[in-house]
Amino acid sequence: MDLTVLGALEFSSIAIGIRALDEMVKIAPIKIIEARTICPGKYLIVFSGDVASVEYSFKKGYETGKDLVIDSLFLPMVHQEVVTAIGNIIPSDSWAAIGIIETLSVVSSIEAADVAAKVGGVSIIEIRLAIGFGGKSYVKLMGSLDAVQAAMTAGTAKAKANGQLCMETIIPQPHIEIKPYFM
């Protein structure tokens, strides 16, 4: 299955999120990456597949959720590192600089990560999805200081444009003692 297409829907209702999930998988063959409750009482669906399948399922999920959709994303050309980093920590050899983008929704962090990755020169090492974070999410990226600064500028601009940026920070030359918490 082609993983270069990504869809995500974040609902304010758990019940409607589960109903949307069922309807989405019935309408087209998609791969579910994440489907679960997230804080505070929301439901998240992240999925991939071929363009038509993701588009059909995305529309069906959005139609099912209507006014209960908090945030959504249909991304036909997602950067592959984004798919890999969703809910995972990806080891990186780079230790020159760390960038962290904290957002108010899970969908906005995925979108910010995609924009940052496409700037280039950074590794997306983690996209943490609102478990115990009051509905917030964050992206961690690593690379040279110049690359991290450029990627952070692009990623945070996207989150700001959507009104979803909570906080951002860059740590140049991080101390070796914090490395175990990033790998």
Quick recap of the structure?
Helix content is 36%, strand content 32%. It is built from 5 helices and 8 strands. The strands form 2 sheets. It has a 4-stranded antiparallel beta sheet with strand order 2-3-1-4, sandwiched between helices. Strands 6-7-5-8 form a 4-stranded antiparallel beta sheet.
Structural account:
The structure is a single chain. The chain has helices at 14-27, 51-65, 80-85, 106-119, 145-161, and strands at 6-11, 31-38, 42-48, 69-75, 97-103, 122-129, 137-143, 165-172. The chain has a four-stranded antiparallel beta sheet with strand order 2-3-1-4, sandwiched between helices. It has a four-stranded antiparallel beta sheet with strand order 6-7-5-8. The radius of gyration is 16 Å and the shape is elongated. With 183 residues, the protein is of the alpha+beta class. It starts with 5 loop residues before the first strand and ends in an 11-residue tail after the last strand. It folds into two domains: 6-75, 2-Layer Sandwich (Alpha-Beta Plaits), CATH 3.30.70.1710; 81-181, BMC (bacterial microcompartment) domain (Alpha-Beta Plaits). The chain contains five helices and eight strands.
State the main characteristics.
4-stranded antiparallel sheet; Alpha-Beta Plaits; alpha+beta; 36% helix; 5 helices; 2 domains; single chain
